[in-house]
Amino acid sequence: MRVLAAMSGGVDSAVAAARAAEAGYDVTGVHLALSKNPQSYRTGARGCCTVEDSRDARRAADVIGIPFYVWDMAEEFDREVVQDFVSEYAAGRTPNPCLRCNEKIKFEAVLERAVALGFDAVCTGHHVRMVDGRLRRSVDLAKDQSYVLAVLTREQLAHAMFPLGDCTKAEVRAEAERRGLTVADKPDSHDICFIADGDTAGFLNRRLGSEPGPIVDESGTVLGTHNGAHAFTVGQRKGLNLGGAVDRRYVLSIEPVNNTVTVGPRAALEIDEIVGERPVWSGCDPLTEPFACTVQLRAHGEVHPCRAWERDGELIVQLDEPATGVAAGQAAVLYDGDVVLGSATIRSAVSRARQTSPAS
């Protein structure tokens, strides 16, 4: 069985590739070059996307004893991840670029190319498990990445290998050291790779420009101004600059058409019904009737008991108890215990009692 190991330059993907090779698979390592101008992305060896990471991946492949290549995916990454990130913020939504990268780059573009070249599967260092063809949470819940992989289809999962889901991150690092992999102590990557300085608002301003607009309360009273609605996300409290005379306020909604940010008290953030678009059912057939399960609404966010089903091509989620800070553009991922049932991109969220829409 021929396996293409996606090697980011971090410890997880290196150990995953080593395990696949040790299991007897015919493994080839590949690193994805995601920027035409690497200096414009984050620098330093951080476990993903930099020149230093490419070198670390090559050294790991040499230690493992597998062929290694670099694939130029810069054009696809810019189109599917960076431009999508900008356009989503421009539309008043809050995207998850890592989720989109997994969907469009690592398990669409890469898998398509790998199959065309005769590979049977793509192996990655994600902390998830595959059991009987279904995606399950990692045993290390603190590192679980099932949320950002829940956008994958059954067909994509059928060609995926995740060797690390049965161990903790500490065990992965210890194994890397035993194998003589120099990335054993390499820090994890957390930041958005294409925003080198970590200043998301500044990055968006450079792409979208500065456009002043009003900050209003729920009644429409103007409380202040902003330099671009794209700099805000639902649930945000810091950076509103409303002055001490205004009680603590949170972003309730972002309206790009009139460039207005609406703020209000934390209680106004509470929602209990979510509508998601483009549902993907990887762990079960589409739910045609309300089904008791749980839903996760942000990466590393808490899990909420709910009832969920598909209606007219959309995912409907009714929470047992209200949640706050639910932003359009994020993913709603359904679980039955630790098994991923499916996911959808959040389009809107409301309080059934108030019938308002703080996530739109």
Computed over alpha carbons, the radius of gyration is 21 Å
Strand count, sense and closure of the main sheet?
6 strands, antiparallel, barrel
Q: Determine the structural class based on helices, strands and strand pairing.
A: alpha/beta
So what's the oligomer here? single chain
Strand content: 25-35%
Function: Catalyzes the 2-thiolation of uridine at the wobble position (U34) of tRNA, leading to the formation of s(2)U34.
Region (Interaction with tRNA): 143-145
GO molecular function, one term: methyltransferase activity
Organism: Marinactinospora thermotolerans DSM 45154
What's the topology here?
Blueprint: E1 2-6, H1 11-22, E2 26-33, H2 51-64, E3 68-72, H3 74-90, H4 97-116, E4 121-123, E5 128-131, E6 134-137, H5 146-149, H6 154-158, E7 160-161, H7 169-178, H8 200-208, E8 213-216, E9 222-226, E10 250-255, E11 260-264, E12 271-280, E13 291-296, E14 303-311, E15 314-323, E16 331-336, E17 339-350
Parallel strand pairs: 1-2, 1-4, 2-3, 4-7, 8-11
Antiparallel strand pairs: 5-6, 8-9, 10-11, 12-15, 12-17, 13-14, 13-16, 14-15, 16-17
Helix pairs in contact: 1-2, 1-7, 3-4
